[in-house]
Inverse folding.
């Protein structure tokens, strides 16, 4: 019972998602048997999303409903060529207002923020992904939505799938992000996928194992809190690494449950495969944590969000795309002090990784060198990710003090120093070539 009580107290997002599973199975069963027409399917997922929002967020569910309503108004009255600019600006201003309100309540008024408000703002961030994804589709003419007087009926027909995509109960609380076109294709379900029961069961077992390991790790760490004045430096570093791993495992559980909900509804099955239900996934624990390079970790962590950031910012920026992408990410996450330190550190260490790999990789001629490079790279990646996770999750000065006291913060600092040295060496080489 201790584990169950701990999960309920510490991870209410996870429990709210678990409550959606029976309705996802019901949707799959009714669709598979042909009891739901296409219109009824759209109504099922959209009404289900609205009910889920009201039940879990209360009055704060208005954050999502207002965003959706304003987005539809922009679609109706703004020229398609300018829709993305308007949508992006309005949506990010609305989201930033609530992020700043949370900071005002926490740091200025010293009030505790309601879990419902946190849940609503978290869902609003995911809604921002879906809204901007549609606006980019419209800008790139991958999707067309018309609301002119001559096509009023067609506009109403387009409105239901769009609303269902934005407020679907399968992605409302946890993603993963899929394109609007993919969502419509999945809802049409021309070729229904096989039963997802086995895949969902296995993924639920994985979630239980992750939470069990996390529970044991938290108990162990509570009993072995290091004293900076007496403990060895290695003990402090390992303790901080364990704390960051606890935070990351919470995300892996969250993403796995999100996969379960989508799979239970019949979404995420890969065609031409034998029982592969990984079509909608935000990341895998083993492949992500096994990354020996920061750039690999950045691509594998929260996969659909990483792809969204790449499309929204990285590809569109002509100057400093990497830093602009991570800069927007810290804005999207909430503009806390820890976010500034964490995401800018992440960007700098990814840039360092590119330079180091380009410089060292040609010199890895033997197998033992490659193995040593991989092992050292994995340790370096784990420690940098540890510092980023602590800074981002604790959000304020307490995380930075913890990294300072335990000396874990030396890892990213050394990487950033190495980046400066490599940039200077690179500049000297270019100057020498020009002179010659």
């Amino acid at each position: 019972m201790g584990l169950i009580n701990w999960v309920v107290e510490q991870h209410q997002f996870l429990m709210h998602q678990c409550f959606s599973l029976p309705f996802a199975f019901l949707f799959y069963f009714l669709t598979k048997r042909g009891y739901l027409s296409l219109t009824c399917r759209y109504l099922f997922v959209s009404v289900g999303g609205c009910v889920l929002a009201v039940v879990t967020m209360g009055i704060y569910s208005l954050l999502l409903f207002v965003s959706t309503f304003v987005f539809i108004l922009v679609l109706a009255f703004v020229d398609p060529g300018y829709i993305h600019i308007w949508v992006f600006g309005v949506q990010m201003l609305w989201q930033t207002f609530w992020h700043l309100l949370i900071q005002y309540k926490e740091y200025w008024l010293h009030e505790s923020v309601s879990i419902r408000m946190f849940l609503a703002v978290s869902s609003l961030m995911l809604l921002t992904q879906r809204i901007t994804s549609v606006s980019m589709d419209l800008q790139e003419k991958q999707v067309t939505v018309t609301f002119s007087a001559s096509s009023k009926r067609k506009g109403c027909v387009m409105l239901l799938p769009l609303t269902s995509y934005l407020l679907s109960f399968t992605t409302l609380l946890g993603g993963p992000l899929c394109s609007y076109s993919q969502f419509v294709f999945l809802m049409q379900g021309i070729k229904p996928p096989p039963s997802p029961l086995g895949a969902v069961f296995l993924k639920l077992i994985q979630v239980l194992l992750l939470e069990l390991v996390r529970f044991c790790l938290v108990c162990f760490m509570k009993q072995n809190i290091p004293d900076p004045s007496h403990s060895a430096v290695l003990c402090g570093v390992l303790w901080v690494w364990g704390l960051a791993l606890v935070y990351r495992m919470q995300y892996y559980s969250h993403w796995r449950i999100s996969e379960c909900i989508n799979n239970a509804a019949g979404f995420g099955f890969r065609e031409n495969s034998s029982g592969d239900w990984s079509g909608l996934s935000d990341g895998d624990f083993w492949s992500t944590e096994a990354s020996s390079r920061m750039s690999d970790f950045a691509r594998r962590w929260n996969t659909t969000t990483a792809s969204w950031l790449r499309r929204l910012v990285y590809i569109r920026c002509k100057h400093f795309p990497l830093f602009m992408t991570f800069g927007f990410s810290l804005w999207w996450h909430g503009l806390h002090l820890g976010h500034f330190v964490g995401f800018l550190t992440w960007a700098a260490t990814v840039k360092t990784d590119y330079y180091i790999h380009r410089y060292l990789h040609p010199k890895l001629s033997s197998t033992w060198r490659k193995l040593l490079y991989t092992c050292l790279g994995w340790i370096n990646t784990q420690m940098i990710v540890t510092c980023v996770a602590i800074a981002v999750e604790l959000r304020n000065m307490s995380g930075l003090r913890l990294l300072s006291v335990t000396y874990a913060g030396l890892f990213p600092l050394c990487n950033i120093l190495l980046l400066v040295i490599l940039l200077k060496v690179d500049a000297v080489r270019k100057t020498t070539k020009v002179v010659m």
